[in-house]
Amino acid sequence: MPQTDTIGSSAVTPPKQGSLWSALGWGTLLFVAWGTVQGITAIFASGGLGAANMNEMTGRSIALANITATPVAVALAIVFARARWGMAATEHLGLTWPPLRQAIGWTLAFVGLLAANDLLSYILHRPESASVVSMYRTSGWLPVFVFGIVVAAPLGEEFIFRGFLFSGIATSRGGPLLAIAVTTIVFSALHTQYDALDILSVVAGAVLLGVTRWRTKSLWLCVALHSLMNAVAMVEAALFAK
Fold first, then answer.
1. What are 183-196's pLDDT values in tens digits?
2. 3-state secondary structure of 63
3. Distance of CA 200 to the CA centre of its chain
4. In b/e form, how buried is each residue of 40-59, taking b as 16+ CB within 10 angstroms?
5. Domain-wise residue ranges, the chain
6. Which of 32, 166, 180, 214 is most deeply packed, by most CB within 10 A?
7. What is the tens place of the pLDDT at every residue in 145-202?
């Protein structure tokens, strides 16, 4: 992993090393704030605490929860990064794009992963995930649903996991491999509503996103790839729902 890089004509200094426990603490605070906003929004979108459908989150409530919580996640990630790393916050969060050839290479790798997952589903004669199809069928107004799942969710989750948390762990004694492991475990734990094959796909996708973040130092590429993954899932759910 190179110690220096350039953006235009400006030299980028090596990331400042920090405490692993500090990174985990700030990351937990960010995660809790984001999750709290999501939970409150989901409750109101579902009709309140006494609503009959609170046991089954609808696609509409999930989309709205993502839309309201994402600005909180992005804003707090930037504020916390500035508090920890000062003017180097942009670098630590990875708010840059990699060279075009590198971006294409990692995108093709991600497309290959998605194709492998679909091929495995075909070989196992497995239909589209029931939870994803159910989410699509209860999506409400489609433009809002698509924005919440394909745009807002990847943006908020990536700023938390491959943005602030990844950089905090990667620049500590833990290093990038621990950062990939921790972000993969926590990210995958958020998707336990899926079946075993879907969870395996989520884990593989999270690992690849972590490696992409490590090798390219770009959070924006991770956001784009995550959006691609969600978009493919929604298209397949729409086709299956028919």
1. 999 999 988 777 77
2. helix
3. 16
4. ebbeebbeeeeeeeeeebbb
5. 16-241
6. 166
7. 999 999 999 999 999 999 999 999 999 998 999 999 999 999 999 887 777 788 889 9
